[in-house]
Write a structure and sequence with these properties.
Length: 129
């Protein structure tokens, strides 16, 4: 009888171990699902934080652009000094847009510094681009 008792006890222990193994496998499946949900939540939180940072940067840039648009810009001088206009008129260049080749030909008798000064004045006046 002793041997039969040992066999019964071993069978009971085996059944209990199989039941425990099944429970552990179910628990592992549930835990891995929880880990996946936690990972997804963390990734979503990171993405939301990244998007919030981008939104804040875009809002700052928009506010800067609005502020810049509201501040009046100092008007650019649109007239050429009288001396420059007179010198150009003597060489056949009048008011309005100036052809760069004609301007270079008209300024050929001036020194480099004088040519730069005249072209700078014309650029400020918007006569040449």
């Amino acid at each position: 009888m002793e041997e039969r008792e040992i066999v019964e006890r071993l069978e009971a222990a085996t059944a209990l171990l199989e039941k425990t193994l099944g429970w552990l496998e179910e628990r592992q499946g549930a835990l891995s699902g929880q880990v996946e949900r936690i990972t997804a939540t963390v990734e979503q939180s990171r993405r939301e934080a990244e998007l919030q940072d981008k939104l804040a940067a875009a809002e700052r840039e928009l506010a800067e652009l609005k502020a810049a648009a509201q501040n009046p810009v100092t008007p650019v001088r649109r007239t050429v000094p009288a001396g420059t206009a007179e010198m150009l008129a003597k060489r056949g260049i009048g008011d309005g847009p100036v052809d760069v080749r004609a301007l270079d030909a008209a300024l050929s008798g001036l020194s480099l510094e004088q040519r730069i000064a005249v072209k700078t004045q014309l650029l400020r006046a918007g006569s040449i681009a």
